[in-house]
Amino acid sequence: MQSRLVFVHGIGGLRNPAQELTAWTRALAAGMRGAGHSATAGLISNDPGRHAFVHYADLFGRGQAQGGDAPGVAGGAGAEAEILSDLLVAWVDGLDAEHSDARNRKILDHARAEAEPRAQEQGSLAVVRRALNVATTLLALKPWGAAAQWITPKMMVSHLGQVARYLARAEPDAQGISLDRRIRARVAEAIGDGPAIVVAHSLGSVVALETLHQLAIPVTLFVTLGSPIATRTVVWPRLLPQPPSVPESVGEWLNFWDRDDIIAIRPRLERELRANGRGVTPTSRRVDSDGTWVHDAEKYLAQPAVAGPVAQALAGTAGGPASDGGSG
Predict the structure, then answer these.
(1) Cα separations in angstroms, 307 against 66, 249, 299, 327
(2) pTM for this entry
């Protein structure tokens, strides 16, 4: 039985699920052709309807619509503000580990000073103002300085705030179901009875990881792209369940990161998660994309190094050969 491809998006605004499924499938097919899997690329391109794109960005609109007083913090809630504050420090520290030239270090030193909580700081608005200052400073970093033409500090803080809001485990709906549980329910529904190949980007990797711990269906391959899972002081200690580990249903986990991805700090997940009962641990691999904003999911998917293993997994579950040959 062929595994179903399930795509899980990350931070960002509202999306059109049908259009996103087409775009992600197209990017993945391009990467498959580059990896020499033209036949599999044709199969997923010609039958995108058998696969799924999980959309949950609309769920983040609820807290902001109910009097949210700043980007990234729902209604000024203290828990989200505290997590956002911790994220700022971890973000700057993670970037600092990747950069050594004098200009960038000067920028990062300034950003770190802005990121540190202040004794006189009170309320979530103060945290958000600090976040905006940090984001403004970091946009001057190479190679992301050019991205400032279309990525604003407010947008960056709003997107980081989605991570904080998910991890806060709050914002219950009328039935008392928290925001994070509502998001995971959508992923579980898309996966269905399996088997599945789950490809998750950014915050979606956190959502997918926690969802898979709740499911018993076989996951042939779990692929994470630009993941913040191993952000040691913020995401990692708040993952469910603890201690963080590979879900029992996962047969293989490949984690991809780009050195210029400002979200994927501490990218080597195998150092941070326990193996499952079958001895499966994440395998982290670096890719290099062009452009000013490499965190984009489609850039990751179009990489032959990413798409090739997905093609092999699809061919294997379909009962076909691991490689279908041809270079496109």
Answers:
(1) 41, 21, 11, 13
(2) 0.85
